[in-house]
Structures are given as structure tokens and as C-alpha cells.
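Page 42, continued from yesterday. The earlier attempt failed because a stray header line got pasted into the input along with the sequence. Redoing it now with the clean sequence only.
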Amino acid sequence: MDTGQLHTSMPLCEVLGIRVAAAAADEVVLQLDWSPSLCTTGGLLHGGAVMALADSAGGVCAFLNLPEGAGTSTIESKTNFLGAVREGTITAAARPLHVGGTTIVVETEIRRAEDKLVAKVTQTQAVLKR
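This time it went through. C-alpha cells are written below.
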């Protein structure tokens, strides 16, 4: 999956400016740049923007691990915020923890450019068979 495909399948990613750095079944890497339009009080990147990045990375990771013809949807997400973002780019690296017939569990780490951990997210994706 490339950035164009991401934006077509998840239009919110285009609105937020999320882009694909790498996408494979064993790891998906997405990036988001700090912008004043994505901030809350004091110029801090809004937690919702961070969570949207993580959810998008986890969704792509789950999608790349689906059986032929299946779809996916987030059914649970747990986020631990560990640091603030006041500038620069954050990177989400999503990796599958469990790939099953009905659910896929993904763990995503969000880091700032200097490799400082910003958030850790664990999410469960449903496997939607057609």
C-alpha cells in the first residue's frame, strides 16, 4: 500500500496528512507531521490525531494480514500516552501480535523523530468475512 491507496481507502488520512513510509504484513509504518491545525492548548498535537495515526497504521497492518476477500474494522483500542509532541514528525510502527480467523491484534508504537516514545497502542481488529 502506498500513500495514494491509503488516502483513497481512508480519506481521513488525507485530511490529516498521514503518509505511508512502509507497508508489509509484518510491519506498517505511517507518518504524521505536527501542524498548528492538529493541536490543542499550548501547541500540543491533539491526542485524537495521534490515535487516528495509530488506528490507521493498525488498520493497514490488519488489512495486510487478512484472508482473501475479507475486510476489517477496529473493535477495541487502548492507548497509553507517554509524551507530548510540539513539533516535527511522528512515526507509527504497527506490528501484528496475533493473526486469527476472527480477530487480529496489533501493537503500535508512536515515536518522535529523535526516537522518543509518544504513545503505545494495542488494538483488536475484527476479521469481516464476506
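Notes: The two ends are 22 Å apart (CA to CA).
Reminder to self: strip header lines before submitting.
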